[in-house]
Amino acid sequence: MVEERSEIVFFDVETTIPTKPGQGFAILEFGAILVCPRKLVELRNYSTLVKPADLSHISSLSVRCNGITKEAVVAAPTFADIADVVYDLLHGRIWAGHNILKFDCARIREAFAEINRPSPEPKGAIDSLVLLRQKFGRRAGDMKMASLATYFGLGQQTHRSLDDVRMNLEVLKYCATVLFLESSLPDIFTENSWVSPNAIMRSRRNGKSLPENTGQNESPPSSSINAVICSAESSTTTSSTKNHPILSLMMPPTEDIVSSLIDSNSVAVDPFNMSTLCDEMENAQQDEDTIEEEKSSLASEESATSVAHENPHSFDNFLEPEDISVPSISATLVRSYPGHRKVQIVHQGSELQLRCKYLKIRFGISTKFVDNAGRPKLNFVVDLPPSLRVVLEKADTIAKKLSNDSGSSSDWHPVVNKKPGFYNYPTIRLHIPTIVDGETSKLVTEIFEKDDTGTRKVVFSGVDVVELDSLLSPGNLVDASFSLDSYDYQQNAGIRLLAKKLIVHRSR
Q1: pLDDT tens column, 480-503
Q2: pLDDT band at residue 61, thresholds of 50, 70 and 90?
Q3: DSSP per residue over 103-163, as a string?
């Protein structure tokens, strides 16, 4: 039986990033804020770094994602040391966070299982990523925390637990306020409520960054009166809940949404009358499962990945640069997801897709950027042949013009890289998309190895960065089939080249 507790606990975990098949996530930091749902006052906060069982799991990729190093956690408590505090904070309360249903909740359950202790159970859940995509639309692009922070001018996401929790709460307040205003004067606001995700936003610093430390940090309520107010008001009538700007986003503890969080035999008590949202939340979760592919950070990348995965062997429509009539290259706007259109490059009425032989690799696999779940976005750089350069620069020019003409104010990043002093040695970056299959990521790109004995398909059990880097090493030649995928995200726009098939030439 879940204990009756009316507060909402916003929480976030930072973890290691698995780099090998079968390797799980290890919690490196836990942060939480206990909030009174009636006044939105902070009753308590807690944060601590966490020392994982195996420090070697803190890879350079993990450090690039959240900045937490081995040295930072070597003197920190283990999860077993903080388990009692975490359990007390979470058990029996409403859990809230951004993307918690798909990531943070699973990490909490795994951490308790590893120390052979029962996991805390939530009374309900508010996944702000799911709910804001349902309620707020796609005004801030992919609606991830960094995108929302940019949209509202809240500064940059730090990927530190307590900072991210505070930002999550602020974003939720902003979104709820906008929705409240729109519902008050629907004839005026709703007509223009679909603000472009590329609208120019102000920028200001949040000013609440958490000093890095290895110890635990727990703060009581700023005033004991706040706790009394919250407790007293939580027992009053709930008739005003539907009009509450935050509680109107409440996700009821339906079996479809939180079955992975709560035992099916437990009784989940809903202290707020949110039953009218059940159908909407079920639909929202189904939509989330369809479009939340944590492989890339852009919706354009998601759609291209999906197509590649469905029909990986269809390369008949890929053209070599010499077969393309450059004057016949054009651009059009196509539907990407509800409320958003993207630029598509077209050649003689069909989507332009290219293949080019013997591209020389300039720089090998880069994992500089990661997605929301911490998985690396793989890419490498090749030298650009003159014939391919003409095609790509033409496509880039017309795509940029159409983007600007359609109202985008984002900075356009050319697809052809021309570094100062190396203008005659341009390069392009080829991206290798991935998809998620359970707990592991898989490559969408088909990769083959060719030598004097023949051509063989390279089979990867997961995303093996080390093996990829040895295969796509500088100096090697590669035949590449790729698509031109436009993006417009967080004031940055351009064309991304998504590799669908690679044949690497290796000499023996």
Answers
A1: 999 999 988 767 889 999 999 999
A2: confident
A3: IIHHHHHHHHHHTT-PPP--SEEEEHHHHHHHHTTTTTTT--HHHHHHHTT-------HHH
Three-state DSSP class for residue 498: strand
**What does the alpha-carbon distance between residue 399 and residue 492 come to, in Å, rounded to a whole number?**
14
Q: How far apart are CA 493 and CA 502, in angstroms?
A: 26
pLDDT tens digits along 210-241 = 344 556 766 665 443 344 334 434 444 344 44
Structure tokens at 282: 């079920």
Cα(412)–Cα(180) distance, integer angstroms: 34
Active site residue: 57, 91, 98, 159, which one? 159
Q: Catalytic: 98?
A: no
- Amino acid letter, residue 169: L
Contacting residues for 337 by C-beta, under 8 A, at least 6 apart: 138, 291, 299, 303
User: Residues near 485 by Cβ (< 8 Å), separated by ≥ 6?
Assistant: 300, 301, 303, 304, 495, 496, 497, 498
In this prediction the pTM is: 0.48
User: Which tens digit of pLDDT belongs to each residue from 260-294?
Assistant: 444 333 333 333 333 333 333 334 333 333 333 33
Using only the alpha carbons of the chain, give its radius of gyration. Answer: 25
